[in-house]
Amino acid sequence: MSQVEKPARYIGGELGAQAPVHGDGSAAWLLIYPDTYEIGLPNQGLQILYEILNERDDAVAERAYAPWVDMEAAMRAAGLPLFSLENHLSARDFDVLAFNLSAELVYTNVLNLIDLAGVPVRAAERTGHDPLVVAGGHCAFNPEPLADFVDCFVLGDGEEAVGEMNAVIAAWKVACGPVAGDPTEAPPDRTALLRSLAQLDGVYVPSCYEARYHGGVEPATHAVLPRLAGTSPRFPGIPDRVEKRTIADLGEWPYPRQQLVPLIEVVHDRLNVELFRGCTRGCRFCQAGMITRPVRERPAEQVRTMVMDGLARTGYDEVALTSLSSADYSGIEDTVTSIIEDPSCSGQVSVSLPSLRVDAFTVATAAQIQRVRRTGLTFAPEGGTWRMRQVINKLIREEDLYAAVDAAFSQGWKRVKLYFLIGLPTETDEDTLGIVALAKQCVAIGKRYHKGVTVTASVGGFVPKVQTPFQWFGQNTIEELTRKVHLLRDAARPVRGLTVRWHDPKATAAEGVVSRGDRRMGAVIEQVWRRGGTFQEWTEYFDLSLWTEALADHGMSLEDTVYRHRTEDEALPWDHLSAGLHRDFLWQDWLDALAQHGLPDCRWTPCYDCGACTGFGIEHVVASAVPPAGGSQGTGQDLSTGGQVPVRFLTTVPSGAVSAPGPGEDAVACVVAPVGEGSS
Ligand code: SF4
Questions:
Q1: Contact between residue 484 and residue 608 where contact means Cβ atoms under 8 Å apart
Q2: φ and ψ at residue 340, rounded to 5 degrees
């Protein structure tokens, strides 16, 4: 351990870590985040399942993260397998290896970790002696690229599904007796276990389904290619379509109760409390918003309790109230105010609101006005022109952005970061250059208040995601994205105070390979991994040539898999899986996008039957009957113009607690997740 970087990544022992005691009647889960400890530890999904499983009598759960390259080399040299952080057990000793899939470029790490565990990488080669390999997370909505390697996927919320799966696995383990783990005995048949799991709602077992192909034409070479005809069950009793799981009431799941506090610095190193799940703003590029509908808000009182208990237990002096659009939480102003004014916080705690919209800046201001000390103030207009923002249904007016930026600079902030996407459907050069125009105006606003203001425009290449209206769109080529980056760079060069940063278009293309791939993509991922392509979401290890060579070796190309527009009647690899959204709703929304029609937020306006609630008999759950400040689409905004949106400061903070950033201070507590941006 003394020879590797950051040994604390591998030792466990954090505040909040559990000490699971394994027993014959329990199913043992190893929850694995396929990236480094620093990226994986804060993952709330993993921490929630960790607690839920360890609370059960018939389950134990431990954790593992991807060892960094130096540690992996040392482990392989010493013949050490992947091991758990809690009891330092070999991964092979667990009944389940459960992966969190939150980004596509980690797929090669998944294969690497299965291999490092000493488990056959291909599911078909595993026996009853091997752990079950399970995966969940947002990427599970197109699981087909990993169908050859993962035994089963969980779609949607895992809180209930994990318990149901555990009951099946624990019963199978008891029924098989010690033979399941005794390599000297003939292995038990896993088929019955997999078929039982496939009966559970929200659980998809790829080996129970067959992908059928017919001929298609490769765009570049005109060669005839296999093209998906459909995916259907191989056995009677297996559902034709797997629907996602949705917990109806977030208030019943106040997890994590004991958030882990790492021993070394990690990303999002703060207390995190989830405000709500789901988003109905309807940004068309945003997979997270589409697949997590409907909105389910946590009761405000529970939020306050989780915050106060969490702060007291962890010692953190910062809490993030998390969701996909935190300022949309109804009653957000009261919630934030009650936290920062609580006597136990005594002006020492900052509240941050990740994923902040500019048209709800009032609340963010209240949050930041406390002792802010972190990254720059960040907004995500996503599109450079109003036309572009109508296409993507992110209906933020320029005036909204300028008012928010003005408010920030006037209060002492000197650095603002803006997130944008390029390569969006129907994008013209005018839209692309609109990014610089917006950012330039923000610099000008800042200069009214300070000399040394900086505005950074961070630009990601758009990757169409499954279960969104843009799932049919052919992604921009590497060359086209590069051209647009150069347009931006050249236009920004003369603007003092403006910096443009961009995501590598090559990595955007590789992400596109996996995002909408079918089962044939498994061979590509495996080849990239076998040729050393791990940590592909890390710039220093990403290598596009590994991906293009693997595609070519398996008769595929970027043109066919990434750049090609899909047609309405084309069978899609995820058609047999449902995030609740009707396919005809998504297609109509795609047509609306092309026609530049916005769609209101259905939380406060009538339902337009996307399927997320109507199909499951559930509804939005809101904590307050009052819409949030700043105006939601459909509440404060006129969709044809963007409408008037108030921007004002709250005056609820005691004057002594106000602390604008001083010189050199890295101020600000709110960060916008660049949804849809690449993952490096
Ligand atoms: S079913 Fe209706 S109310 Fe529910 S998310 Fe869809 S449009 Fe909104």
A1: no
A2: -70, -20
CB of 295 closer than 8 Å to CB of 620: yes
Q: What's the rounded Cα separation, in Å, for the pair 363 and 381?
A: 18
| Test site for ligand 1: of 604, 613, 620, most ligand atoms within 8 A of the Cβ | 613
Regarding the beta carbon of 612 and ligand 1, being less than 6 Å apart is answered: yes
- Model pLDDT, residue 413: 79
CA of 602 to the centre of ligand 1 (A): 6
- CA–CA dist 303, 300 (Å, integer): 5
pLDDT digits (tens, 9 = 90+) for 155-174: 999 999 999 999 999 999 88
User: Could you tell me the distance, in angstroms and rounded to a whole number, from the CA of residue 19 to the centre of ligand 1?
Assistant: 42
- Cα 150 from chain centroid? 19
- Residue 479 burial (CB < 10 Å; 0-12/13-18/19+)? exposed
d(CA 65, CA 35): 6
User: Could you read off the pLDDT of 621-634 as tens digits, one per residue?
Assistant: 777 666 655 444 54
Distance between Cα 11 and ligand 1 center (Å): 45
The alpha carbon of 474 and the centre of ligand 1 are apart by a number of angstroms equal to 27
Token look-up 């048209």 returns 359
> Could you tell me which residue, 184 or 169, shows the higher pLDDT?
169
Provide the 8-state DSSP code for 66: P
Distances (CA, A) of 189 to 115, 180, 293: 21, 9, 38
Q: Which residues pair with 61 in a beta bridge?
A: 29
pTM of the model: 0.90
Give the closest residue to 400 by CA, choosing from 362, 352, 435, 452.
Answer: 362
What lies within 8 Å, CB to CB, of 480 at 6+ separation is 423
Task: Say if residues 316 and 262 touch (Cβ distance below 8 Å).
Answer: no
Nearest to 249 by CA among 611, 618, 624, 617: 618
Cα separation, 416 vs 377, whole angstroms: 5
